[in-house]
Amino acid sequence: MSGQVMVTFDDGTEDQYHSCLVLTDNGVSAVVGVASKLMGTPGFLSIEALEHMKDDGHFICNHSATHPWLGKGAEKPGLTKIEWKDVLQDYESAKDELNNLGFHGDYLMVPFGTWNIDGEVGMSSILEKFRWVRMTIGAPLPEQQGLWTVDGAKRLYPRNYSGRSIGITAAVDIRDKSRTERWVRTAEAADALCVLVYHRVGHPVGSGQDITWEHFLSEVKMLTEAKERGVEFVLPTDLVPEETK
Ligand SMILES: [Zn+2]
Questions:
Q1: What's the CA-to-centroid distance between 80 and ligand 1, angstroms?
Q2: Cβ atoms of residues 82 and 89 within 8 Å
Q3: How far is it, in rounded angstroms, from Cα 222 to Cα 193?
Q4: How many A from CA of 83 to the centre of ligand 1?
Q5: Domain spanning 4-239: which superfamily?
Q6: How far, in Å, from the CA of 121 to the mean position of ligand 1?
């Protein structure tokens, strides 16, 4: 019994450079989803920083071009709703841009998750165009039917799960600091796979999924201890290999 964990970061904010350096020092590789049009703009990782992270073994992938919103789910002040065809076009333009830079544009972590895909029809077009897709918690996708559901909507996956869509098991959150550790230990006990998601690190006091640096260091400690116990850290290409061209 050892279990597997995938550590993911959303949005490619500049603080993630230092978070990933600490993970590198502890032998953990992470998946970083960037919005390609935001790269190098204030507050976001530059291409040079991302190249360095890639050289350190982190997996730089697609989190759309502009972080578009399909207009479903809770209102998002300041965001404009756009149509599905334009959302899909946004994901695809990021794919080309990131692939041209030598990153993993074919591996998509959908912004706003399930809410930002136009139902099953949208999902099949996504799976046609992308090699692997990470959705959010509780995403009721055809490929996940029959998979192991625990604690309401949260999911663990079978070891070495090779489905092309996957959901998040747990998001780090200041309101429940033991949440990620609980899921890592559950995956470990069941020899299953859990997918963790982190957002910004270095918030002065923490806010929802944006955590303080101190909180992140306790997460790194938890992950490092799990690694020492034999938990395996995986990247998307360990589960769904790149297409051979
Ligand atoms: Zn995002």
A1: 15
A2: no
A3: 16
A4: 18
A5: Glycoside hydrolase/deacetylase (3.20.20.370)
A6: 22
